[in-house]
Amino acid sequence: MTASTFFIPSVNVIGNGALKDAMNTMKDYGYRRALIVTDAVLNKLGVAADIQKRLQEYDILSVVFDGTHPNPTTVNVEEGLEMLRANDCDCVISLGGGSPHDCAKGIALVASNGGDIRDYEGVDRSAKPQLPMIAINTTAGTASEMTRFCIITDVTRHIKMAIVDKHVTPVLSVNDSSLMEGMPKGLTAATGMDALTHAIEAYVSIAATPITDACALKAITMIIDNLPTAVENGSNSEAREAMAYAQFLAGMAFNNASLGYVHAMAHQLGGFYDLPHGVCNAVLLPHVQEFNSKVAAARLRDCAQAMHIDVSAMSDEQGAKACIDAIRKLARQVNIPAGLRDLNVKEEDIPVLATNALKDACGFTNPIQATHEEIMAIFRAAM
């Protein structure tokens, strides 16, 4: 086995009421002026104002940039950067789910490295660490608060750029499950299925290690056990906290084992049609794993076992099928759309979507490399 590297923020605060501990840590770091990167909804709900008030108690001044789109764009990064420079900020605080976290990473990376966010597409293209970033998470899904992945939509090319860079890892991640209790059902379902995708893709990845395996399998079990409850009853604090831990574990898995074709393909749908990432993942997940089961059946059987399926009398192939059936059942249970047609994906766009998916860095660790024809076939099957 070749040497593996394990990436994770140096400090991670998790659990109900974790935000208070995080504020103390931020004060210890000596930050004075923060750019809070969030979206219009969280700003309107007063969540950003609440963070500002708490920061003030610790003598930290802040300004709010709430221009993050659900699929953050190159324009969002430029606008946030302008605000950061105008206010002479020494740190960035992201507040929300994957969208504000990714936008904040883009801003913080360009703030310290210069140039344009497009310069950093690919793996480890930056020369130095980004401006210190604290990620306060309000969803249980993307794990962007603790990863070295940053996904930004290039508005000119209509593609999602994957920036995989150790320098975009936040210095501090905060998963306070009390901030997640107001999350709507649809978002809870989509982000939860995103986390399941992270765990399964990391487990079947060619870069998996014993550490990422342990994280992935535990995440799968916790998601199966808690996602339906979190969707049905958003104020159930136990289910919310369990999902916060589960998505963090899934993040630890994929941050180090990387992902596969589900993400490579979902990124194209998001960049092309501006669709919600978690929903695209959820629709594609069973179809890609069906393709992967040709070589990864034994690993998918392990995933089925993590979903409480008794696989003792099953062959690898039967176990893989049981896993794929369980994914479909969970998606139905949390009301994920049945296929890409429901998301208005057009058959005639599939060739170009497949071409771009094959260029996405996430696909490089898929357990089996596909041809253009095979990727198109998976898209069609998911329609």
TrEMBL record:
Coiled-coil region(s): none
EC number: 1.1.1.103
Keyword Oxidoreductase found: yes
Gene Ontology molecular function, alphabetical: alcohol dehydrogenase (NAD+) activity; L-threonine 3-dehydrogenase activity; metal ion binding
Residues of the Alcohol dehydrogenase iron-type/glycerol dehydrogenase GldA domain: 9-176
Pfam families found in the cross-reference section: ADH_Fe_C, Fe-ADH
Enzyme class, UniProt record, top EC level: oxidoreductase
Annotated family: Belongs to the iron-containing alcohol dehydrogenase family.
Name of this chain's protein: L-threonine dehydrogenase
Gene name, Swiss-Prot/TrEMBL: yiaY
